[in-house]
Each structure stands twice: as structure tokens, then as C-alpha cells.
């Protein structure tokens, strides 16, 4: 792989990571501004938007970049430019149609959510928020094509920088706008959430302006490539687009997996809660499940998946080359890295759920219980993402669509009965069952087509869980010793409690892993390089 491509991939990965990091941690000041109940209203608008935007754009930048890179390698630069020009028109049209659909049917979506007069928000208020966020659909698909165009020219900087600027602009407008509405202009919470969701449009404008700036700056060089065009290939854009759609479908489904599960909750959660006489607290608990707790749970998923995903391209290469031994070794390492990082993070969140929820939001018994129940689902989120990526790598991505739809069907079937039995936690159990079923299907497909079974790493997985049990005992002992000294009602004291317990738990876990050799097996040469650097630093 060329150094230019490695550098470009690193830049794009870094930009994506920074953007996700900002998207995870803005919730702390946002929650402080709007309060607990308003987060449900925010989710009522954002869940359908996420699904619409994923359907309109997921996989498009990658698919477009693939085709532009292909024809650039053949020195048929005009083909890529034609694809880009036509793609801009199509994405502008589909984006505008998606906006019209979401804006027009906002009251219908709102009626699916509001099922009882005792709920905090009305149909009109939910429809207002959905309409506020729908404007972003006009711009984002158009922007995705531009990102794909730059990536096709192995120029990752514009995509990375535009992602970060888009996220910063969105968060600044979201926090600043909601604060001004509530505390300066004396507006309502509904108006503040409307401004917060409209921030998606503002962020998209800034992201698009960044891409325009890059395009203007590099247009001279791009036009010089057209002069070198061979002009020997005649390509049907219709054929390319049909291939792009097929290529993008698995990415679309993986991208909307979590939003689809949240959509099921949107449609069924309030109705189920109302049926057991809990309509008055339904909106608040929905916000905790699908916003507050979910944001915390996603943090270890993002970090662990980022590490594990770096191995997946190697799996693809080895599978194509028919190197079965290499495929098995790389899959072993993928799952070991994923579980080695995710499981202790999940255990930590479960053990320290009360102070963690206090630090992010406020002290809440409901929030603590829901977060503790939700934390293990992080392992399932991570496993689904990685198994879906592996299916893509071995060219069996069609099964990703089947496994996800089967999981969603289970969630839809079980959500109301489980909510009636376990209240808010029932929605989490239904999500866990759905994701678990999808993962089992993915693993069975991987076993069949790649001749791989998790049995080959069962011993190492057992070690990971054993060391987490030992770590849990140590952390729990420390936690209960510190509780008389540090109150979980206080944010600062909760931070101290988390830091002390986390450092102690990490020390025990990594000491056991390094002493037993598990860390060497999981990380291989990466750990050796780290050890050598530490030795040189000491010397």
C-alpha cells in the first residue's frame, strides 16, 4: 500500500473519530441546558432523520470513490467527472424529495409516537421537531457525493476536515441556540429542541462550504487530469449507478441498524407503557433508554470497533488470496481484540453506572438502572458491526441484510410484551435478543463460507471473562470502601470515584493479561512494539 494511501486513510479515520468523539460528548452540556425530559423529544426528531439520511447517503461516498478511483487508474478521468456531475444532480433531487417526504409526513410520524394524552408532548410538538431537522436532508446527500469524489482521487483531507467542521458547527449552533432560546429569549423547551435539531442543517451548510473551498482550491489540478484523459472507454452511467446501489445496500443496513431499533421503540414504547398505566413517565424513560444511556453505551463500542476494524481489510485480502490459515488467524485476532477491549469497558459501566450517569447527566435511580441493564448490549453492537464487516470482506454481504431484518422482526415482536413485563428495561432486552439473533446468523455464515468457528478462540474468550470477574471483585471492593467518603449525588465526587476505580480495575485487568501472555496473543506485534518503545524511553 502506498504511503499516500496510508496517510489518506489515517487522516480520514482520524477525522471520523474526532467527529464521533464530539458527537458523543456534546450530550453533557446539552443535557444540562434542556433537562432530562427534553432528550426524548430530541430523539423523536432525530431517529426518523437518521434513517432518512442513511437511506439517502449510506455507502454512497465509498461506492462513488471506488468507481472514480477505478477509472482514474485507467486514466479515464472524464468518466469519473461525468459520474460526479450526474451524481450531484441525482443527490440534490433525492435529498429534496426525502426532505419533502419527511416534512410532509411529520404529523404521521408524530402520531406513531404520541399515543396517550398523559404524555409530556403533543403530536404537534413532535411534528414541529421532525420538520426542523428535515431541512438537513436537502444538503447532506449532495455533500456525500462531493466527499466520494475527493476520496476517489485519494484525497481524504477534504472529507475528514469537512466532517469535523460540520460536527463543530452543528454542536456550537445546537448548544448556543438551545441556551439562547431557553435562558435569554425565554422560549419553550419545544422551541429549544427545534433549534437543536435544525442544527443538523447548519452543520451541513458549513461542511458543504468546506468542500466547495477544497474543490475551488484543487480545480486547476483536477482539470489538468482531464487533459490527460485517454477517452477510450465508453461507460453507461446507468450501469454504474445500478452497481453502486447494490454495493451500497449492505452499508445502508449496517448504518441504520441502531436507528431502526430506536424506530421500533418510537412506535411501540409509549403505547406499551400507556397500556400498563405509565404514560406519564413514558417520554422521560424513552429519553433515558434511547438517548442518555445509549450515548454512554456507544462509547466503548466506537473505540473497540475502531481497533478491530483495522484487521478486517487484511481478512479480505487473505480470503481473496485463498489463504485459509491467514484468514483464521486474522479473524481470531479481530474477535480477541474486540472482546478484550469491549468486555472490561462494559463491566466498568455496569459496576459504576450510578456515578457515570451522574457525571454525564445528573443523579438518577432510573438512569442508573437503565444504564446498568443497557451496558452489556454494547458487546452485541460491537459484534454485529464487526461480523457485518467480515461478511462484506468475504463477499457475502447479502446475509447482513437478512440477519438485520430478522433481528428487527424479533425486536418488533417482543418489544411490547417485554415492556409490559419489565417496563423500560424490556425494550433493552428486546434489542439484545434481536442483535443476538443477527450475530448468530452472521457467525453461521462466516463459519460456512470462511470455514471459521469461534471455538478456536474459546479458551482466550474464557480467559477474558475470567479476568473481568477478578477485576470486578477488586473494583466492587474499592467502590464500597469509597462510598462512605464520596457521594454519587455530586458530579465532582463521582468523577473521583470513577477515576480511582477505573485505574484500579485497569491495572488489575492488564496485569493479569500481560502476566498470563493473553495481551501478547491478542495484540501480537503491536504490543511488542509498544514494549520496545517503553524500554527505549526508560533507557
TrEMBL record:
<feature type="transmembrane region" description="Helical">
    <location>
        <begin position="88"/>
        <end position="114"/>
    </location>
</feature>
<dbReference type="Pfam" id="PF01943">
    <property type="entry name" value="Polysacc_synt"/>
</dbReference>
<dbReference type="InterPro" id="IPR002797">
    <property type="entry name" value="Polysacc_synth"/>
</dbReference>
<feature type="transmembrane region" description="Helical">
    <location>
        <begin position="337"/>
        <end position="361"/>
    </location>
</feature>
<keyword id="KW-0812">Transmembrane</keyword>
<feature type="transmembrane region" description="Helical">
    <location>
        <begin position="465"/>
        <end position="486"/>
    </location>
</feature>
<feature type="transmembrane region" description="Helical">
    <location>
        <begin position="12"/>
        <end position="34"/>
    </location>
</feature>
<feature type="transmembrane region" description="Helical">
    <location>
        <begin position="296"/>
        <end position="316"/>
    </location>
</feature>
<keyword id="KW-0472">Membrane</keyword>
<keyword id="KW-1133">Transmembrane helix</keyword>
<feature type="transmembrane region" description="Helical">
    <location>
        <begin position="427"/>
        <end position="445"/>
    </location>
</feature>
<feature type="transmembrane region" description="Helical">
    <location>
        <begin position="492"/>
        <end position="512"/>
    </location>
</feature>
<feature type="transmembrane region" description="Helical">
    <location>
        <begin position="46"/>
        <end position="68"/>
    </location>
</feature>
<feature type="transmembrane region" description="Helical">
    <location>
        <begin position="373"/>
        <end position="394"/>
    </location>
</feature>
<feature type="transmembrane region" description="Helical">
    <location>
        <begin position="244"/>
        <end position="264"/>
    </location>
</feature>
<dbReference type="GO" id="GO:0005886">
    <property type="term" value="C:plasma membrane"/>
</dbReference>
<keyword id="KW-1003">Cell membrane</keyword>
<feature type="transmembrane region" description="Helical">
    <location>
        <begin position="192"/>
        <end position="215"/>
    </location>
</feature>
<feature type="transmembrane region" description="Helical">
    <location>
        <begin position="401"/>
        <end position="421"/>
    </location>
</feature>
<feature type="transmembrane region" description="Helical">
    <location>
        <begin position="126"/>
        <end position="146"/>
    </location>
</feature>
<dbReference type="InterPro" id="IPR050833">
    <property type="entry name" value="Poly_Biosynth_Transport"/>
</dbReference>
<protein>
    <submittedName>
        <fullName>Membrane protein</fullName>
    </submittedName>
</protein>
<feature type="transmembrane region" description="Helical">
    <location>
        <begin position="167"/>
        <end position="186"/>
    </location>
</feature>
<dbReference type="InterPro" id="IPR024923">
    <property type="entry name" value="PG_synth_SpoVB"/>
</dbReference>
